[in-house]
TrEMBL record:
GO molecular function, one term: cysteine-type endopeptidase inhibitor activity
Domain (Deacetylase PdaC): residue spans on this chain: 163-258
Cross-referenced Pfam families: Cu_amine_oxidN1, DUF3298, Inhibitor_I42, PdaC
Record domain Proteinase inhibitor I42 chagasin: where: 380-469
Name recorded for this polypeptide: Inhibitor of cysteine peptidase
Keywords on record: Protease inhibitor, Signal, Thiol protease inhibitor
Stretches assigned to the DUF3298 domain: 277-351
Source organism phylogeny: Bacteria, Bacillati, Bacillota, Clostridia, Eubacteriales
Domain Copper amine oxidase-like N-terminal: 46-141
C-alpha cells in the first residue's frame, strides 16, 4: 500500500515545538511529541485556558472587537478562521456556525467562552474541538498540557440548507467528510448525516402542515414553525469519528424541543460503534459509568445547578454517548430525568477511569502514542497507536511515500506536515512529517518510507527509512 504525504502545513504541530517566552507557558511533553503547558482558570469542574496567549503562541493572529452589539474574538491564520462570539455564545469555524451556551450545563454556570480578569478564556474541551489538539489538565501543577494529537486525515465540510416561508423557517448544517481511501465507507458515513438532516427537514414540514389549520381558524395566531439542525465533531482521532447531531423543532407551542443523536464510526470499516462495542464483556462498565453519573448528579443538585424529576438509577443498554477528547460522555434527552430548563445533561467519564474496562482494540483512547525507531524491531500492543517522524522539504518537489507491508496489522490513520519553527517565514524552508498508525491485530509488518519526486518514481528515492513492527 502506497500513500503520498501531502505537502500541507499543520501549524499546530509546528507551534508545539516553539520555545515560548510568555509567562503563560512552560515547556512540556505530549503524546506525540513536544508540548506546551498553559496556565488555567477553573469554574466549577470546567477548566479554561487564555485564548490570546495560547493561540498567538500557536502562530495565530488574535483580534478583539466590540462593536456595541457583540464582543468577539477572531483567531485567524494557518488555514483557520474562527470567530468566538462571547455575547451570543456562538462559534463560527469557517463556514460552520454553532451555539455553545449549553455546553457546560451542570458543570458550571459559566459558558465555554468568557472574560475573566479582562482576558478571554476558552474551555479546554471546546479548544481541542476547534484546534485538533490535546489540552490535558494536570492537577498537580494546575496547568494544561497542550500537545499534538493523531487527527484523522480527512476533511470535514459543512453542507448548509436555509429556507423560510410564512409558516416554516429551516436551517440545516450537517457534515460531509472526504479524504478516506475507502470511498464506500466515506459514502456510507455521509449518508447517515444526510439522512438525519433530511428527516429533520421533513419533520419541520410536517409540523408546519399540522399548524396551518390552526392559523387559518385563528387569524391572530401567526406562530411560525422552525427547524434548526446542527452538528459538532466531538472526536476525530486515531481512526474514530464521533459526531453529535442536534435537531431542534418548534411546532408552534409554548417552546420547542431538541433531540440529540450521536454516532461513533470506525473510519476503517464504517462500523457504527455502540457503547457495548467499546467495552469488554464482564468488565463492570455498566455499574462503573452509572456510579459516576449518579455521583455527578448528586454534586450538581447539591451545588444548586440541577433539579432531579426522577431519580437516576442506571444507564441503559442503548445508552446515548459520544467520545470526546477527554473521555466518554453519556447524555440524557430533555425531560429524561430533569426539567426542560436543564437542557440535555451530559456526564463525562475520563478514559483513565475506563482503562480496565475498554476492549484492547481501543486502548489508544488512554495510552500514549509510541514513537517508532528505524532499524530496530519495535513492539507495540494491539489497540495502541504508534508514530513516525521524518524531516523533509516539499518545496523541492520531494515527498515521503509510505508502503505498509501488511495494513491488516498496522493501519495508517493520520498524517501531517509542519514547517520547522527555526526557519521562520523563509521561503523554501523544510519541516517535519508525522504519521500515526493504529495496531489492529497481532502480527509483524514493515513500514517503508521513500523520499522522491512523484514524477521520477520510487526507484529515484534519495532517502529510505524502514521500521519493523511487531504487534502483540
Amino acid at each position: 500500500m502506497k500513500k503520498a504525504m501531502p505537502a500541507r502545513l499543520a501549524s499546530v504541530l509546528l507551534a508545539l515545538a516553539m520555545l515560548l517566552t510568555t509567562q503563560a507557558f512552560a515547556a512540556g511533553s505530549g503524546d506525540a511529541g513536544a508540548g506546551l503547558e498553559a496556565e488555567t482558570w477553573q469554574s466549577g469542574t470546567a477548566v479554561y485556558i487564555p485564548v490570546r496567549a495560547v493561540c498567538e503562541a500557536l502562530g495565530y493572529t488574535v483580534t478583539w472587537k466590540d462593536d456595541g452589539t457583540a464582543q468577539t474574538v477572531t483567531v485567524a491564520g494557518n488555514g483557520k478562521d474562527i470567530v468566538l462570539d462571547l455575547t451570543n455564545e456562538k462559534v463560527t469555524d469557517g463556514k460552520h456556525s454553532f451555539y455553545v451556551g449549553g455546553d457546560l450545563s451542570g458543570n458550571t454556570t459559566a459558558g465555554p467562552i468568557l472574560i475573566h480578569g479582562s482576558r478571554t478564556f476558552i474551555e479546554t474541551g471546546l479548544f481541542t474541538e476547534l484546534f485538533g489538539l490535546r489540552a490535558d489538565y494536570i492537577a498537580a501543577t494546575g496547568l494544561a498540557e497542550i500537545g499534538a494529537a493523531c487527527v484523522n486525515s480527512i476533511t470535514i465540510a459543512t453542507q448548509t440548507v436555509s429556507t423560510q416561508t410564512d409558516t416554516l423557517k429551516t436551517t440545516l448544517q450537517y457534515p460531509v467528510i472526504s479524504g478516506l481511501e475507502d470511498t464506500a465507507v466515506q459514502d456510507a458515513v455521509n449518508e447517515v448525516f444526510r439522512k438525519a438532516a433530511d428527516d429533520a427537514q421533513k419533520e419541520g414540514i410536517d409540523n408546519a402542515a399540522a399548524l396551518e389549520p390552526v392559523r387559518e381558524e385563528y387569524p391572530d395566531f401567526q406562530n411560525t414553525c422552525e427547524t434548526y439542525f446542527n452538528y459538532r465533531v466531538k472526536y476525530n482521532r486515531c481512526g474514530l469519528l464521533s459526531v453529535t447531531l442536534d435537531d431542534y423543532q418548534y411546532a408552534g407551542g409554548a417552546h420547542g424541543s431538541t433531540l440529540r443523536t450521536s454516532y461513533t464510526f470506525d473510519l476503517r470499516t464504517g462500523e457504527q460503534l455502540s457503547l457495548g462495542d467499546l467495552m469488554a464483556e464482564g468488565s463492570g462498565y455498566f455499574s462503573a459509568i452509572s456510579k459516576t453519573v449518579r455521583s455527578e448528579i448528586d454534586r450538581r443538585v447539591q451545588a444548586g445547578l440541577l433539579y432531579e424529576l426522577e431519580p437516576f438509577q442506571t444507564i441503559s443498554d442503548s445508552q446515548d454517548y459520544y467520545l470526546s477528547n477527554s473521555g466518554l460522555t453519556v447524555y440524557f434527552q430533555q425531560y429524561a430525568y430533569f426539567p426542560y430548563a436543564a437542557g440535555i445533561q451530559e456526564f463525562t467519564v475520563g478514559y483513565g477511569e475506563l482503562a480496565d474496562m475498554l476492549k484492547p482494540d481501543y486502548g489508544f483512547l488512554y495510552n500514549a502514542v509510541t514513537a517508532l525507531t528505524s532499524g530496530e524491531n519495535n513492539t507495540v500492543t494491539a489497540g495502541s497507536v504508534c508514530s513516525v517522524t521524518l524531516e523533509g522539504n516539499p518545496t523541492t518537489g520531494y515527498g515521503w511515500y509510505v508502503s505498509v507491508n501488511d495494513p491488516e496489522v498496522l493501519w495508517p490513520c493520520s498524517e501531517s506536515y509542519a514547517q520547522d519553527e527555526s526557519s521562520g517565514e523563509i521561503v523554501g524552508a523544510g519541516g517535519t512529517y508525522t504519521w500515526c498508525f493504529k495496531a489492529l491485530k497481532p502480527g509483524k509488518t514493515t513500514l517503508t518510507f521513500r523520499y522522491y519526486r512523484s514524477w521520477e518514481g520510487e526507484d529515484s528515492a534519495i532517502r529510505t527509512a524502514e521500521y519493523t513492527v511487531t504487534v502483540e
